[in-house]
Amino acid sequence: MDIPDDIFTEPDDVAPDTLDNLGPLRRLAGIWEGHRGVDINPKADGPEQRDYYERIEMQPIDPQANGPQLFYGLRYHVHINTPDEDIAFHDQVGYWLWEPATGLVLQTLAIPRGQVAIAAGHATADARQLVLKAERGSSEYGICSTTFLEQAFRTDSYAITVDFHDDGSWSYVSDTVLMVHGQPEPFLHRDRNHLAKIAEAEPNPLAQIVRRS
Q1: Is the pTM here over 0.90, yes or no?
Q2: CB-CB contact of 18 with 63 (8 Å)
Q3: What is the mean pLDDT of each run of 10 residues along the chain (213 residues)?
Q4: Is the Cβ–Cβ distance between 59 and 75 less than 8 Å?
Q5: Which burial class, exposed, middle or buried, applies to 32 when counting CB atoms under 10 A from its CB (0-12, 13-18, 19+)?
Q6: Cα 82-85-86 angle, rounded to 5 deg
Q7: Domains of the chain and CATH, by start
């Protein structure tokens, strides 16, 4: 990307209401549940398929600026369980971010097993599909893991495809390519689910202040 001469001055035309300026991410705002999840993960005896259900909460944050760069976004929390266990199967937090000036879409993610990533893609404001990717070794949109994960279950790439549906629901397929210690070929770890909204998002803090004033 081209870096402007002035990298410090923030834009002065920032809209206070994030929900009105999320572009394609507006369809993700809210609280969601999905009961049709399928996970394919590596085990010592070969691939294992697990069914799961999940709850995702996505709430708008105040506009964020890196000097002249401006993002509108959602803070999210994913919590996943399986039908046969009470303990958490997966937990994940992060942000979905939209840069209106360029169409850049970002997903940041962190999981409590010592791994973080930033995935990136581009989309129009009315896009019906989002495709984001992260690659190990990239200093921009990459993946960082603990020493154990790097040596035992090395993540070489991550990709997520989100499809928006006419009934207001959305679905995703996420593909993580792993190099598992002792196995000669990469393993494709895939998750997919279909989410339906159970509650609307709350306005971001700045929007609430403006409405009260």
Answers
A1: yes
A2: yes
A3: 89 95 98 97 91 98 97 98 91 98 98 98 98 97 98 98 98 98 95 98 96 88
A4: yes
A5: buried
A6: 105
A7: 18-212 (2.40.128.20)
